[in-house]
Amino acid sequence: MIITRIAPSPTGFLHLGTARTALFNFLFAKKMAGKMYLRIEDTDRKRSQKIYEKDIITGLKWLGIKWEGDVIRQFERRKEYRRYIDRLMEYGFAYKADGAIWLNVEAALTGKKLSIIEFDDLIRGKISFPGHKIKDFVIVASNGSPLFLLTNVIDDYLMGVTHIIRGEDHISNTPRQILLFKTLGMDLPKYAHIPLILAPDRSKMSKRAGAVSLLEYRKNGILPETLVNFLFLLGFHPKNDKEFLTLSEMAQEFDLKRVQKAGAIFDETKLLSINSWYIRNLPKDKVLDYLKEFVKVKISKQKFKKYFAITRDRMERLTDFQDRVKFLEKLPDYSSELLIFKKSTLKDTKYALNLVYIRLRKAQAGAWKREDLIKKELEQVVAENNLSNGDVFWSARVALSGLSASPQPSEIAWALGREESLERIKRAIGKIIKI
RNA sequence: GGCCCUAUCGUCUAGCCCGGUCUAGGACAUCAGAUUUUCAAUCUGAAAACACGGGUUCGAAUCCCGUUGGGGCUACCA
Predict the structure, then answer these.
(1) Residues A239 and A364 placed together within one structural domain of the fold
(2) Residue A128 burial (10 A CB sphere; 0-12, 13-18, 19+)
(3) Which residues, including other chains, have CB under 8 Å from residue A358's CB and lie 6 or more apart?
(4) Is strand B in 7 Å reach of the CB of A280?
(5) Which nucleotides of strand B come closer than 7 angstroms to any CB of the protein?
(6) Is the CB of A364 under 7 A from strand B?
(7) Chain A 319-338 residues whose Cβ is under 7 Å from strand B
(8) Which end of chain A lies in a sparser environment, N or C, as judged by fewer CB atoms within 10 Å?
């Protein structure tokens, strides 16, 4: 049975790197019909905080990354570590100095043929370190806390972890951990070190000042489907060039051998393009559900749906909705000149607007229920009066929206309804006769 | 500095392991055009890369060595 784990320390918010490591562990376990555990590495009592732990758990859940069983916390397991520490001391593999407990590397190395410590990384192949470069290191701090290098190894053993998939920044920890495994007489897990996510300046993303919680992306109108898909593509490439995948499809495609070796720069533009794709292509009800959180103004359910229908193609983030929809709730001020299409004239515009008004006022109630029927009405105005599309559609659009860029006039009219639409056109006519 | 990892378009990457089919493919971004109303969406097209130098070979993006660049670690953090 394949067992993986994700082992974040609650000393900061969940960031992209941890999220991607979690994703890869999750996908690998899923693909291999194995399990993934979540282990909170909170041995550093000073820096560990509950709010970070909560942030990490909420973030992973939001992404749809699921782990086996309960959350495991290292602080609750501190008695386990004691046994192994005692054993190391007893056999002379560890010693006390300056109040801390150190691993005696020379003693640990003896008889283990470790002049070169080598392991076969599932992503990078053979990696080797000269054994003599390893210096004694602290395994228990002077305040009594067992440290990462040690607890990480003990827990991976105790939990039966078979595959350690973690960030590249841990490569240099690996020889010391292998030494620990061997000294404690434990079997070695397999390692796979994934590349780091880099900021646009090529530095380690999580290191960057102001690295915020992954949940900030949720707050900023990014869908979880987007983020997971984006993270997946950062350092991995499915065989068939497929760009948009569900979690199950990702697991299906996942293969450690295809994971990239070099660091990847985080590109927000790509994130946004994926996001707008998901806004447009996910089932409507699902997007509507996500969108609910972002609607601050009080509008009826019916209006909400209509507004969504005509702005959906124009959103990059869910947070765009409010702005895109403002003009529907309240007609913005606009200059009368805006009503005149660049290839049209004052006279034609006046004429067109009047005709549009008359036509729409006479339109049957049924026509207002369908956007395409309203569009037909407008097209009739063009056809029957020797006007251009620009004369009619531009002026109607501006009359209805007050904007130079907006959805189509028929869409706006449909979303606005008969009363408000006619009112707005009437107002436009009032404006234009004053020119 | 030491140790380790790494190197294809601006960015994410395919191809590399098993050299020829690569005049190097896709996506995002950019630019142009179409959709004869704006914006978006959509469609079409363009520009854009094998870091460099040596080998090996009939032949190298693909194998080897070196150089250079980038990154990580170098804590009684994880």
Answers:
(1) no
(2) exposed
(3) none
(4) yes
(5) 2-8, 10-15, 25-29, 36-42, 70-78
(6) no
(7) none
(8) N
